[in-house]
Design brief:
The chain contains seven helices and 15 strands. It is α+β, with helices and mostly antiparallel strands. The chain folds into two domains: 157 residues, HIT-like (HIT family, subunit A), CATH 3.30.428.10; 151 residues, HIT family, subunit A (2-Layer Sandwich). The strands form two sheets. Strands 4-3-5-8-10-9-14-15-13-12-11 form an eleven-stranded antiparallel beta sheet, sandwiched between helices. Strands 2-1-7-6 form a four-stranded antiparallel beta sheet, with helices on one face. The longest helix has 21 residues. The model has no long low-confidence stretch (mean pLDDT 87).
Length: 358
């Protein structure tokens, strides 16, 4: 089907895609053209320094349904005993976590079964899911939450992952959190996001390829090798019975932190209840030490896990990565892909280990 025919079919059926996925002709990487988030070119001109609106009164996530969001896809209540997944007619005030559809999604309804051509280029519908995980407290972000609350957030990540992973248009589920305006957060109220994609993201594809190549050459998991070494080295920041937190030997940004399960596991969603509690502790330890040491820096954290496309990824080891925003990529980084790091990971680990907890 020609792309022109495809567009004609959409217009005839009265259907408009939220986004398109376009594939780079050289690298094979996919990118999203999020027409559902469309901006006019002039809107990218600088208009002064942006600020977060910290007013609870004007916050769209303080009472999501009151500000026009649909009923939650999943809701936890404060007492952690009452929980409903659907059919909610009237929400009470004591909710703890809500999962809602993103009103301005990067992905949405579409047909994932076909790819289309435009000249030499390939594209497909931006089919998938884009959800927001909102925690109740307007100002208490993850580093300031209790361990129980952080564990509850991780539990929600798992639940939504398991709910979406069997969908025919979902090959990969990406869970991430933007903290601070420099990290891309546009709403002050703490929230995480989940995007379910029909393709493998470029960074994940490279990660999988490198892990597979190492395993075929050495018959060992590359991430297990790293974890075993780092838990005894100067770059270790924190460890508990099930997880190791360290500053990687080759970081991508200053103060990068990674969290790995000690036990080899390919799939985040298969983490047990006990392991989930330990992961929550490791995540909280990392974020709180950053919060205290760097005075609440902006950061992105995300989870890299094996795809949910039914293939064998036993050679892979899931993990979380935390990337603080301490500097801006310039010509060297953007033009060569070679990151310039200004502080040794060994010094980062020592600095963060020395932050007092409690």
């Amino acid at each position: 089907m020609k792309i022109s025919d495809f567009k004609k079919k959409q217009l005839r059926d009265g259907f408009k895609n939220v986004s398109e996925l376009r594939q780079d002709l050289v690298s094979g990487d996919w990118m999203v053209v999020a027409t559902g988030r469309a901006k006019r070119p002039h809107m990218f001109a600088k208009t002064g320094k942006k600020k977060f609106d910290q007013s609870i009164k004007d916050c769209p996530f303080e009472d999501p349904q009151k500000t026009g969001h649909e009923e939650p896809l999943l809701i936890y209540y404060e007492d952690s005993k009452r929980r409903k997944v659907k059919g909610i007619k009237k929400l009470v005030r004591d909710w703890s976590i809500q999962v809602i559809k993103n009103r301005f999604p990067a992905l949405g309804p579409g047909d994932c079964s076909e790819k289309y051509k435009e000249g030499p280029y390939t594209l497909m519908d931006g089919s998938g899911f884009h959800e927001i995980i909102i925690t109740r407290d307007h100002k208490k972000h993850l580093a300031l939450m209790s361990l129980d609350k952080v564990e509850e957030v991780v539990h929600v990540f798992q639940e939504r992952y398991l709910t979406l992973m069997e969908h025919r248009c979902v090959n990969y589920i990406f869970i991430f959190h933007n903290h601070g305006i420099e990290a891309g957060a546009t709403i002050f109220h703490p929230h995480s996001q989940l995007i379910a994609l029909p393709i493998l993201p470029a960074d994940v594809r490279r990660d999988l390829s490198g892990a597979k190549e190492y395993h075929e050459k050495h018959r060992k998991c590359v991430h297990c090798q790293m974890t075993e070494w780092e838990k005894e080295e100067r770059r270790c920041i924190f460890q508990n019975e099930h997880f190791v937190v360290f500053s990687p030997f080759v970081p991508r940004v200053n103060f990068e932190i990674r969290i790995y399960p000690r036990k080899h596991q390919s799939h985040f969603e298969k983490m047990s209840e006990v392991e989930r509690k330990y992961f929550a502790e490791a995540l909280w330890q990392a974020l709180f030490r950053l919060y205290k040491g760097l005075k609440d820096p902006a950061y992105n954290f995300f989870i890299h896990t094996a795809p949910c496309d039914g293939k064998n990824y036993d050679y892979y080891h899931w993990h979380a990565e935390i990337l603080p925003k301490t500097n801006i990529w310039a010509g060297i980084e953007l033009g060569t892909g070679v990151e310039v790091i200004m502080v040794k990971p060994e010094e980062v680990a020592k600095f963060l280990r020395n932050q007092k907890i409690g």
